[in-house]
Amino acid sequence: MAAYEKVRVQTKDFSIEKEVKLLRKSSKKIGAVVTFLGTARDFSEGKNVKAIEFEQYRDMALKALKKLRTDAMKKFKVIDISIVHRVARVKPGDQIVVINAASMHRKDAFLACQWCIDTLKKTVPIWKKEFTPSGESWVTEHP
Questions:
Q1: How many other C-beta atoms are found inside a 10 Å radius of the C-beta of residue 18?
Q2: Disulfide: which of 1, 10, 30, 109 matches 34 by Cβ 3.0-4.6 Å?
Q3: Of 104, 141, 100, which Cα lies nearest the Cα of 30?
Q4: What are the residue ranges spanned by the domains of the chain?
Q5: pLDDT tens per residue across span 34-43
Q6: Which CATH superfamily is domain 7-134 in?
Q7: Is 139 within 8 Å of 129 (Cβ atoms)?
Q8: Which of 34, 79, 87, 37 is CA-nearest to residue 59?
């Protein structure tokens, strides 16, 4: 089995259960794991959405995600963090991103997880294009 990469960008779907299980192996001191799961919606900014396509500069995106993880590890009292982001064409209901933050206590994991997704959306060079019945368009940042 290949080494577990805690930060990944991939086209294929992921298993939340598997990601949490792998993260929990990093320490017996973990008392809380908070998971953020981002999924594709079928409605955005007043339009029905048929699909979303994610694009990236792979090296830049991976570097930014690794920096995000490193910064979060320093900023919060966490034991470990994993981030997986898909870059593919997805349909409504499909999984896009999963962030797992593990700590001794729940508050630290919640804070780190929220900070990670908020910062990811602002700093990581992954862009999305929505496909609607009236055409396609690149999406600006959502809160």
A1: 11
A2: 109
A3: 104
A4: 7-134
A5: 999 999 999 9
A6: Molybdopterin biosynthesis MoaE subunit (3.90.1170.40)
A7: yes
A8: 87
pLDDT at 2: 56
DSSP element (H, E) containing 74: helix 58-75
Q: What are phi and psi of 40, to 5 degrees?
A: -80, 130
Question: Whole-angstrom Cα distance, residue 68 to residue 104?
Answer: 20
**Do 129 and 56 contact (CB within 8 A), yes or no?**
no
pLDDT (0 to 100) of residue 3: 67
Q: CA 77, CA 104: separation in Å to the nearest integer?
A: 8
CB 139 within 8 A of CB 44: yes
Altogether, the residues listed in the chain come to a count of 143
Q: What is the mean pLDDT of residues 94-118?
A: 98
Q: Which of 33, 1, 17 is nearest to 95 (CA)?
A: 17
Q: What is the mean pLDDT of residues 24-32?
A: 97
